[in-house]
# Entry
Amino acid sequence: MKHRIFSIGLAALILFPTVSMLGGCGKASEIVLRVYNWEEYIDEGGEGTFIYDELHELDEDGEPVLENGKHVHIESDIVDDAYKAWYAREMGKELSPEGPRVLDDFCLWYERTHGQKIRVEYSTFGTNEDMYNEIKLGNEYDLLCPSDYMIMKLAAEGRLEKYDDGRDENGDPDGSYNFFDPEVPENYYVRNVSPFIAEKFENNAGLEISNDEAGHPILWKDYAAGYMWGTTGFVYNPEAKDAQGEPVDVEGLLEELGWKVFTDNTFRNKITAKDNVRDTYFAGLGLRYQDDLLALRDELSANAITQEEYTRSITEIFNATDDETITEVEPVLRDIKKNIHSFETDTGKSDMVKGTIWLNYAWSGDAVYALDLAESGETEDGEEEEAMLLNYYVPKAGTNLWFDGWVMPKGVSARGTKEAAEAFVNFLSMPQNAMRNSYYIGYTSVISGEEQEMLGYADYLYGEEEGTEDTMEYDLSYFFGGEASILADIEQATCRQLYAQFPTPDVISHCAVMDYFKKDESERINELWSRIKAETLDAWAIIVIVVAVLAIALSVVFVKFGDKIDLFRAKPKKGYRLIKQEDPNRL
Amino acid sequence: MKLPRFSRKTLCIPYAVFLVFFVVLPMLVIFFYAFTDENLHPSFGAFIKFFSDPTKLSTIVYSLVIALITTILCLLIAYPVAYILARSKMKKKFIILMLFVLPMWINFVLRVNAIRELFNLLASLKGMGWLASANYFKTVFGMVYDFLPFMILPLYTTMLKIDNSLYEASADLGASAATTFFRVTVPLSMPGIMSGVTMVFLPSMTNYVVSDMLGNAKVTIIGKFISDYFGNDWHMGSMIALVLLVVVFLSTWLSGGFKSEENVRGTSL
# Structure
């Protein structure tokens, strides 16, 4: 008996890692906030952070130097000494030179301001679908950071909890905490968020608004607080040379062909698409309906239609999933597959830097990262490479505008972590922290800052001093809500990091947001994707092969067991009985 | 102190528990999802959809063919190597064997990445441009490279165990070298071939890391489908996994993989 118990104990030991993962333990006095975010999507400290790179690289006069050697001195409360003072005030300790993690700073800050210890359990996912599966399996998190379409999907399925709006069930104000009240000093999100983003979140970026079970419209702004946003476009190599060493006018071709670069023979094996159905289907739509989209663009610029009508029209085109559209887009996607170098999710950046490809269909933040990487002359693994300049381009016919935002899954109130979750969002929304995250990951924060602090950041990174040659006024009023512009290098403003990270008003007005695929749509699109990704044989070929395989299998069975299976033996004549044959091995 | 004594039964409990939790239960879960719809009601929807979709059936066929070619190539390369190593009187043949097995000590993804870069480099040379779009070739190359040690090792161990007196007897009776090879070596190394084939054929049907990295994700094998479908349709994903399981089971059974120990000598790694 003792041994049996011992063995069971041993078995328990084997299972222990699993069990302990399910449990999760925390001290009673300590709040545990479980945050589930994209990989590499928050400032994780050390090299590559704003604090490490920018605040400690001072020249002999004590002024910050940018990586490209440019000296900047901008009166802004977001950089240098003012930043250090701000940090000391908020976190209650001196800024350490190695670049602290934002998550640690949050814990520090929360304890100081809320008087309670907190621990952040931080985990990451690679795709929205992975995250969705985790939630569906019942894993408990307090904060998630899905993309726009996944926010809509989660909200429509009733898996999310709304942010506190200071109202009771009937919608009357009850004096409780209101996340959206700009009068409350701790509400950094609502006070600092860009009016452009706030407007998009209020009307679901022009997409169809569905109702929840109680009949209330499902609005992003109730469920989500923005984090990062951007566009999709092409990273390209302006100095690409073909096999004969002749320069290729990639920029001119992009301008001329737009989405059609995907199927253009010049770019055979020199362009990549994304290995996920949403982005590549979007590109297929752009390619197939490019003429319609350009016609709409002309109408808009001729003021024949309003901006609203235009946006509605292109949103409709980029969200079409009916059978007819799929039939139209399928051959286009086939052509794309034939022409591209690869479907990729993360090899595109390094292939671009290595010169294997000339064009990489990319998200704007990844584009900024690739541009920085190429410029620094290093590969992703830190090897030395020749420095090169890459550019970013957005198709004229319109592109995808996307957002990632923080949402709280059902159950945060019950767990008592909602307050901490909202505080976390607010903490990340302080301009100084938004800047740190944005700097680290290359994407664009939704934060503009109460006093346009983020304009100072853009200026710090990309601004030029008055009187420098080849500069232009770069207008960002749409994002900051009110007069806002910086003086930028023409290259930066038309095709480089600034253009990728802070799109121009022109790019913004020609963008569409992509809705999530409803159930039947999702099925159709998945089938389409599998037809594109895999080869389909003719029906007769499949039948021949299946018959051949069955025949082989049966003959093998027959050869092996023919003498043991009654089915294969001749029926005995009438009056005789079948006798089981002895196993010959026994003799 | 007296050491506690265990009966066989009690010693088996940890293994049994392990098997139940990490083999039997997951299989049941796959089976459950394969035959339910999204409301978890019993349904043959995924089953019907799978077998009425030419793309999925074609992908199974493609995966089978890729796996078959990989296996044949591995066998063609590995057999002479194993034969020479086992039969030669070389003193340091262990080193040669090590050289073949050594790559297994390096992380698989790293190796595939290295090959990817090599191919990219080759494709940029004059006259080698075809390599950039030879995705099936590159996929099969990667698989052969990756699974070769799994073919060499079992073949080598089986051939080592062939009694030398059998060769002598064969020569005594006047058999030529070729006859000896085909009537002594090949039949006696059959268990090694079988276990090598099983170890190469089965994983090369599902190893989509190779087809993604070297085939530039333009080659799709059945493993990739399973992974893709688990993104948004578990029922179809489970159904494909189940079909694959059946295919694997059948091919193992037909190749005699379930035969009891007495007939198979020294083949497991």
